[in-house]
């Protein structure tokens, strides 16, 4: 049973915090609820799927989280999430499995809203996926394996991203995808 101080720390953390069981939100703090535009009682018992831009991204992220948590015990990335009103925003996600053998069975997650630092460009789901993996430093071949597409298709999406952002190379593209507005 958590103490009053434990509850106060959880509830007043400067980032959104959740405890999940099999990707179902069992407990969340006020910052998490406000970030996504809900009341806490609307989120508790709900699937994390409602916070993703698409069901495919929810499924793919679950598979990726499972691999990373099994291998490292912790997870970290920056990704596009969806608010209650449908608005998309960049979010920093960090997770820790409570049972390393069953990583999604019980986990603690933090979510930080990055929308003030990184506005969302209108991209297709696949462009977002390729862009996020480029930011992680993956090569076209690694991205192709992760997304189960051909390296040539990765290059097509990368070239579209470069044209959309008006950049000449991968370094400039990554800089645009992670840029903090001045």
TrEMBL record:
<dbReference type="GO" id="GO:0006355">
    <property type="term" value="P:regulation of DNA-templated transcription"/>
</dbReference>
<dbReference type="Pfam" id="PF00196">
    <property type="entry name" value="GerE"/>
</dbReference>
<dbReference type="InterPro" id="IPR035965">
    <property type="entry name" value="PAS-like_dom_sf"/>
</dbReference>
<dbReference type="InterPro" id="IPR000014">
    <property type="entry name" value="PAS"/>
</dbReference>
<keyword id="KW-0804">Transcription</keyword>
<dbReference type="InterPro" id="IPR016032">
    <property type="entry name" value="Sig_transdc_resp-reg_C-effctor"/>
</dbReference>
<keyword id="KW-0805">Transcription regulation</keyword>
<protein>
    <submittedName>
        <fullName>LuxR family transcriptional regulator</fullName>
    </submittedName>
</protein>
<keyword id="KW-0238">DNA-binding</keyword>
<dbReference type="Pfam" id="PF13426">
    <property type="entry name" value="PAS_9"/>
</dbReference>
<dbReference type="InterPro" id="IPR000792">
    <property type="entry name" value="Tscrpt_reg_LuxR_C"/>
</dbReference>
<dbReference type="GO" id="GO:0003677">
    <property type="term" value="F:DNA binding"/>
</dbReference>
<dbReference type="InterPro" id="IPR036388">
    <property type="entry name" value="WH-like_DNA-bd_sf"/>
</dbReference>
<feature type="domain" description="HTH luxR-type">
    <location>
        <begin position="116"/>
        <end position="181"/>
    </location>
</feature>
